[in-house]
Design brief:
Helix content is about 45%, strand content about 20%. The protein has about 130 residues and is of the alpha/beta class. It has one domain: Rossmann fold (3-Layer(aba) Sandwich), CATH 3.40.50.2300. Helix 1 (about 15-25) links the parallel strand 1 (about 10-15) and strand 2.
Length: about 130
Amino acid sequence: MNDSSKYVSVLYVDDEQINLELFKIVFRSLFKVFIADSAETGLEMLKQNPGIRIVVSDMKMPGMNGIEFIKEARKEFKNIIYYILTGYEITDEIKNAIEDKLINKYFKKPFDKTELLDELKIASALINE
């Protein structure tokens, strides 16, 4: 991991507190981690923290699912790299989001730390070019 990734800000959005805490614990030594417990809070975090460059969102959340959240976020925050994290198999909605380049990739819960970290490193390198 290059030193610049430490300064890349990542927002993780999930309605389950334990998942938010786990993500923060796993990645806070490598990234500046922000967490939000709803899509609405996630949108607010993006507005308050313009340095966020990567967003990882849960898919199944009350009110607004992950794809809906990302569609809304992309209206204002186009230069962010977006990912979906889900406990379910890939759906047509997620496939379409990948094909339409709305999201870069999706990951299954529980996440594989190495797989997710490798992807975040790739995203960090793109950001820091």
